[in-house]
Design brief:
The chain has five helices and eleven strands; from the N terminus they run ααβββαββαβαβββββ. By secondary structure, it is of the alpha+beta class. Strand 4 and strand 5 form a beta hairpin. The protein is globular. It is found in: Membrane.
Length: 207
């Protein structure tokens, strides 16, 4: 074997040995859903930087559920989920000892929850009429994701803390296929696709 051929073989072997699975993603406690749709959101809270990796920057509707149907890695682009300024100085609204953030951007349900998690909060849970009235006044012109989803095993709507809805606050219509998440608009809660893009509401206690 010539010296030149040996060099080529060594080069090819080094490429094969260094190849990594492009869909190996890590996840944190607030982003379990993202692993199934190929989305990773590395976060550096100290620098106020929140980044996300999504299947293209055009939108997330119809994101594939398995890695077998995922597009080629080069179709993934890294863009900001929120600006640095928004993370460092978010526009929180105070009500009854809690703080609420009404997003200006739009995301799918899973990404919305991950952004809330990066801000030390979670998607809002509706507990009483005063809170519902407060949300009514803040959501008159658009749909906002909330922390309510339809769970197949129990076949019921549950909040993200595993509690059931209160009939005097939220009454959901019969479950519709592919509408497993909930949105609020002008105080009315309705089912929606978890993959469509909507605003969202984060909720946290303390400052």
């Amino acid at each position: 074997m010539t010296h030149k051929l040996k060099e080529n073989v060594c080069f090819l072997l080094s490429l094969v040995g260094s190849e990594k699975d492009p869909y190996q993603r890590s996840h944190s406690s607030g982003s379990e859903h993202l692993l199934n749709i190929g989305v990773n959101i590395p976060r550096d809270i100290s620098s106020g930087d929140v980044l996300r990796t999504v299947a293209g920057a055009e939108g997330i509707g119809g994101v594939p559920q398995t890695t077998d149907s995922l597009p080629e890695p080069q179709t993934y682009s890294t863009i900001r989920a929120t600006t640095t300024a928004a993370v460092q100085h978010p526009k929180w609204k105070r009500h009854q000892g809690k703080f609420y953030l009404f997003s200006e951007a739009k995301e799918n349900w899973s990404n919305s929850r991950t952004v809330c998690d990066s801000l030390g909060s979670d998607l809002v849970i509706i507990n009483d009429k005063k809170q519902l009235e407060f949300l009514h006044n803040k959501t008159k012109n658009a749909d906002y994701f909330i922390g309510l989803t339809y769970t197949e095993p129990q076949r019921k709507w549950l909040w993200i803390d595993d509690t059931e809805t209160k009939s005097n606050l939220v009454t959901m219509k019969p479950h519709e296929v592919d509408k497993d998440c909930a949105v609020i608009r002008a105080g009315a809660v309705n089912s929606a696709s978890c993959y469509q893009l909507n605003h969202w509401i984060c909720e946290k206690t303390g400052g």
